[in-house]
Write a structure and sequence with these properties.
binds magnesium ion; binds thiamine diphosphate; alpha/beta
C-alpha cells in the first residue's frame, strides 16, 4: 500500500472520524429528543445513513479534497457534512443545535438555506449525483471559453447505493460519455441497504459493468486494512472466501447482533480445528466484530489509498465502497435502521464509548486523545478548509436594454425567439459570448438552428461537419468546436434541467457568468419537473424556453398538448413565467430576463410591483408555433414595464364597461375577435393582455401581505389595472391552458368571472377545430360574456356546436 499519509496524520484522522460519527449522531439525537419542539413531532433518524459515510467523508474532507472540488453529499449524510464544517470552523454550534429547526442546519444539505458552504442542494435522491456530472461538463465549457489559471476542480458525488436506482443517473452517465466527461467522482456508499430493504445480491458487479461501459474507471474498496491483514494470516483466505460469498441480509444481521453471533456463525461455517479456528479464536468478541465490520468504506487507509490513486488522472471514477449502514452505532446493520434512532440509553452508551462527558457533547475536541493544539494545527492545514471563499462572484455583465429584431406582419412567438437569438448571434459583445444554449434533441424544432449556425456546437475537440466537407447542401452548418456555444443533449429532459442547473450556477462555481437558455417542448417540462425544482431551489439562473405549447400546437398531435404548465410556472419558486402573444412583447421580456437572471441577494420587493425583481431568479417562456398577426407599435417605457409586470390594457375599459376579456398567449386573435363580435351589443368592452399570470399573481399576493403588515399604500400592478374596472362588469378569461391560470383575476376586486381554458387532454385537429372543441374560440368567449354580463342577445353569437 502506498503510504500517502503519515502515521501521525492517520491517527488524527481516525480521531476526527470518531468525532464526525459522534457529532452527527448527537445532532440528530438532540433534534429529536432534547430540543423543545412545539409540535412534539419526532422526525426520521438518519443516524444510520450518516454513520455509513463517516469514514468516507472524513477521508475526503480532511485529506483528499481540494478547495476547488465541489461535492454533492447524499441527502441523509447532511449531519456528517455539518459536523465536518463545524470541526473546520465553518459551521456554528447554534446551527447544529437547531438542526431541522427554524433557521437551523438543514436536514438535507442546502446551497441556499445552509450557511456552511454547501456546494449542491440534495434531497431528491439521484439529482445531486447527476449534477456533479453536468458541473464537470460546465467546468470544461467554461475553461474552453474563458481561459483561467484557476485550478481544475473535481466534481464529487457521495451516493447512496439505493440512490443508484434513480433513472436520471443513467441518463446522465450516457450523456457524460458522449461529452467526454472528466474530473468526476462518484463514491457509492455500498451498504446494501435502502430505506425499506436490504438490496439485491451482486449489484456491485452490475454497477461495475455499467460504469466501465460508459468509460469510467471503477475502484472497488471492499476490505479494510484489518481484514486485509487477517487474510494474510493462516486460514485468512477461507475467511475472505466466506465474506465474499456472504449474502447481504446475513452480513447485515450478524453485524447487528455483534461479536458473539459472528463467532458462532463463522465457527459453524468455517471452524476447522486448525488455522481458521485459530484465526477466530485469538480474537475477543469485540475484536472479531471490529474485524468483520472493517469493510473498505470504513477503513481510512484503504480509502485514502483508493482516492489518492485516482487523483493522478482526470478520468471519471466510480468508487464502490463497502460499508455497513449504522456502522459504529447500536443500529448497525439492522434492516429497519433507516428512520431508526438510538434510544437515550444507547446514546449514553455511545457517549461513554466516545469518552464524551455529559454536558460536553458539543465540544469540538472532547474525548479525543490528541491534544487540542495538535488537532487544531491539523485542521488548519486541511487543504479543503481554505480561508478563501470557495464560492465566486461574477461581475454584472452589461446587457442590451432592447433586442434587435425585424418583426414580420405575421409571426409566431417561437419564430420570434429564433430570430432574436439569430440577431444576438451576429454580435460579439462580452454578453453574447456568455450565452450558452442547450436542448434535448429539439434544437431545430424549437428554432435554435440559425443561432447554432452562427455559434456552433460545443465540444472539447474540434469536429467538422461531414455533410459540409462532402458538400451536401443543408440548412444547418454545424461544427463542433471548443468555442461552440450550443450544448447538444440527447432526448432526456432531466438532463436538460440538470445541465441548466449546472450552467446556471457557473457564476458561483466557476466565477464566470453564463446566460444559459434551454429549449424543449412545453409538455415535457413535466418529465424533468423535479430537476427543474431543484435547479430553482439552488438558485441556478437560466432561461427556459418551452415551445410549442398547449393545444395550439394542433398538428403536432394530441399527445404533445400541455395544459398545466402555466400553473407550474406560477407555483414554481424562483421561476418567473411569461406567456407573451406578440413578438415585441417577447423581445422586451427577453431583454429584461438577461438582467433579471443576474440578480441576487436579499433585497426588498420593488414598490412598483411588489415582486422580487431585485433578487432575481430564472425565467420560463411559454411560446407557440402559431403565426399571429403582429401589432404595429412602438413599445414605450410604460408599456415595457407593464409587459414585464404581467399585463396591460389592449383596450381600456370605460366607466360603463360591461365585459372585460382577459387573455394570455396564443389565443390573442380569438380574444380580439370576440371583442369585435360583442361591440354592438355590449356597452364598452375591455381587453386585458396578460403577459405573465405568474407575476401578476405574485405581485397581488405580495401587496396584500404588505398591506396586512401595515404598508397601507402597497398596490400591485394587477390591482391598479383592475381598479379601473367598474364593479358590475363581468370578466371572461381565456388561455390555452388550465382555466385556473387566469380564473383568479375576479377575486382581486370581486368581479364576476368565467374562466375559459383547457381541462381535457389529447384531441387532435386544426387550431380552429381544437379551439372550438375545448371552448376557447371567439364564439365561446362571446357566449361566456353573454352569460355573465346580461343584456340583449349578442347577435353575432352563432349557435355553438
Ligand atoms: C426522489 C426521492 N425519492 C424517495 C426519497 C426517500 N428516500 C430517502 S433515502 C431513500 C433510500 C436511501 O437508501 P440509500 O440511498 O442506499 O442510502 P442509505 O440510507 O443506505 O445511506 C429513500 C427512498 C427521496 N429522498 N428522494
Ligand atoms: Mg444504502
Amino acid at each position: 500500500m502506498t503510504q500517502q499519509i503519515s502515521d501521525n496524520d492517520l491517527k488524527i484522522l481516525a480521531e476526527l472520524e470518531k468525532k464526525v460519527l459522534w457529532l452527527s449522531s448527537w445532532t440528530i439525537h438532540h433534534a429529536n429528543h432534547l430540543r423543545d419542539s412545539a409540535d412534539g413531532l419526532k422526525v426520521g433518524g438518519h443516524q444510520a445513513s450518516s454513520a455509513s459515510l463517516a469514514a468516507i467523508m472524513t477521508a475526503l474532507y480532511f485529506h483528499t479534497l481540494r478547495p476547488q472540488d465541489r461535492v454533492a453529499v447524499k441527502p441523509h449524510a447532511s449531519p456528517n457534512f455539518h459536523a465536518i464544517q463545524y470541526l473546520l470552523g465553518k459551521q456554528t454550534c447554534e446551527k447544529l443545535e437547531g438542526f431541522r429547526g427554524y433557521k437551523g442546519a438543514q436536514s438535507y444539505p442546502s446551497r441556499t438555506k445552509d450557511t456552511d458552504d454547501v456546494d449542491f442542494s440534495t434531497g431528491s435522491v439521484g439529482l445531486g449525483v447527476a449534477q456533479t456530472l453536468f458541473s464537470s461538463l460546465v467546468q470544461d465549457y467554461v475553461r474552453a471559453h474563458f481561459p483561467s489559471n484557476k485550478p481544475e476542480g473535481r466534481m464529487v458525488a457521495l451516493v447512496g447505493d439505493a440512490e443508484m436506482d434513480e433513472g436520471n443517473i443513467f441518463e446522465a452517465m450516457l450523456e457524460g460519455w458522449k461529452q467526454g466527461l472528466r474530473n468526476c467522482w462518484w463514491v457509492i456508499d455500498y451498504n446494501r441497504q435502502s430505506l425499506d430493504a436490504v438490496i439485491r445480491e451482486g449489484l456491485w458487479s452490475r454497477y461495475e459493468a455499467l460504469f466501465k461501459a460508459f468509460g469510467w474507471d471503477v475502484v472497488i474498496v471492499k476490505h479494510g486494512s484489518l481484514q486485509e491483514a487477517a487474510f494474510k494470516e493462516p486460514g485468512g483466505e477461507a475467511l475472505r472466501g466466506w465474506i465474499d460469498e456472504c449474502p447481504n441480509q446475513l452480513y447485515s444481521a450478524l453485524t447487528f447482533q455483534g461479536g458473539a453471533a459472528w463467532r458462532k456463525r463463522l465457527m459453524n461455517d468455517l471452524g476447522d480445528q486448525g488455522p481458521v479456528t485459530r484465526l477466530i479464536d485469538k480474537r475477543s468478541d469485540d475484536e472479531l466484530a471490529r474485524l468483520m465490520g472493517n469493510l473498505g468504506g470504513h477503513d481510512l487507509p484503504a480509502l485514502i489509498e483508493a482516492f489518492g490513486t485516482a487523483t493522478t488522472h482526470d478520468r471519471p471514477t466510480c468508487f464502490i465502497c463497502y460499508t455497513i449502514k449504522g456502522s459504529g452505532l447500536a443500529l448497525a446493520g439492522h434492516k429497519d435502521n433507516h428512520a431508526g434512532m438510538m434510544t437515550p440509553a444507547q446514546m449514553d452508551q455511545l457517549r461513554e464509548q466516545m469518552q464524551v462527558r455529559a454536558g460536553h457533547e458539543w465540544d469540538r475536541f472532547e474525548g479525543l486523545s490528541t491534544p487540542p493544539e495538535k488537532l487544531q494545527a491539523f485542521l488548519d492545514r486541511v487543504p479543503f478548509a481554505t480561508k478563501e471563499p470557495r464560492r465566486y462572484q461574477a461581475p454584472h455583465v452589461e446587457v442590451p436594454s432592447e433586442l434587435a429584431i425585424t418583426i414580420q406582419p405575421t409571426m409566431s412567438t417561437q419564430m420570434g425567439f429564433g430570430q432574436l437569438l439569430n440577431e444576438l448571434g451576429r454580435g460579439n459583445s462580452d454578453f453574447v459570448k456568455r450565452i450558452v444554449t442547450t436542448s434535448p434533441d429539439v434544437t431545430v424544432s424549437t428554432n435554435l438552428g440559425p443561432w447554432v449556425n452562427r455559434r456552433n456546437l460545443f465540444a472539447r475537440e474540434k469536429m467538422a461537419d461531414t455533410f459540409k466537407s462532402e458538400r451536401i447542401a443543408s440548412t444547418f452548418n454545424w461544427e463542433f468546436a471548443p468555442t461552440g456555444q450550443h450544448i447538444e443533449l440527447g432526448i432526456a429532459e432531466n438532463n436538460l434541467f440538470i445541465a441548466l442547473s449546472a450552467l446556471g450556477l457557473s457564476h458561483s462555481i466557476n466565477g464566470e457568468r453564463l446566460f444559459p437558455i434551454g429549449t424543449l417542448y412545453d409538455p415535457f417540462i413535466a418529465r424533468g419537473l423535479d430537476a427543474l425544482n431543484y435547479a430553482c431551489y439552488q438558485e441556478a439562473r437560466f432561461i427556459l424556453v418551452a415551445t410549442p405549447s398547449g393545444i395550439t400546437l394542433a398538428g403536432e398531435g394530441g399527445a404533445h398538448q400541455s395544459i398545466g404548465t402555466p400553473l407550474i410556472g406560477m407555483a414554481q419558486d424562483g421561476l418567473a413565467a411569461f406567456e407573451p402573444a406578440y413578438v415585441d412583447e417577447l423581445a422586451a421580456i427577453m431583454a429584461w430576463s438577461f438582467d433579471y437572471i443576474q440578480k441576487g441577494g436579499d433585497a426588498q420587493p420593488s414598490e412598483r410591483n411588489w415582486l422580487r425583481d431585485e433578487t432575481g431568479g430564472s425565467v420560463y417562456l411559454r411560446l407557440s408555433t402559431r403565426p399571429v398577426e403582429q401589432i404595429k407599435r412602438t413599445i414605450d417605457a410604460e408599456l415595457r414595464h407593464a409587459i414585464i409586470d404581467g399585463a396591460y390594457w389592449m383596450r381600456r375599459p370605460g366607466p360603463n364597461c360591461q365585459v372585460v376579456v382577459a387573455y394570455t398567449g396564443a389565443v390573442a386573435p380569438e380574444a380580439i375577435e370576440s371583442i369585435g363580435l360583442m361591440a354592438e351589443d355590449r356597452r364598452d368592452v375591455g381587453l386585458l393582455a396578460v403577459t405573465s399570470a405568474d407575476r401578476l399573481n405574485a405581485g397581488w399576493t405580495a401587496a396584500q401581505r404588505a398591506r396586512e403588515r401595515g404598508l397601507v399604500n402597497a398596490r400591485s400592478h394587477i390591482e391598479r389595472l383592475m381598479a379601473e374596472v367598474p364593479p358590475h362588469c363581468g370578466i371572461v378569461t381565456v388561455c390555452d391552458a388550465h382555466p385556473a391560470t387566469l380564473g383568479w383575476l375576479g377575486a382581486i376586486h370581486g368581479h364576476r368571472t368565467r374562466g375559459l381554458g383547457v381541462e381535457h387532454f389529447g384531441q387532435t385537429g386544426s387550431i380552429p377545430d381544437l379551439y372550438r372543441h375545448y371552448g376557447i374560440d371567439a364564439n365561446a368567449i362571446v357566449a361566456a360574456a353573454e352569460a355573465i354580463a346580461p343584456g340583449r342577445p349578442i347577435r353575432y353569437l352563432k349557435a355553438l356546436p
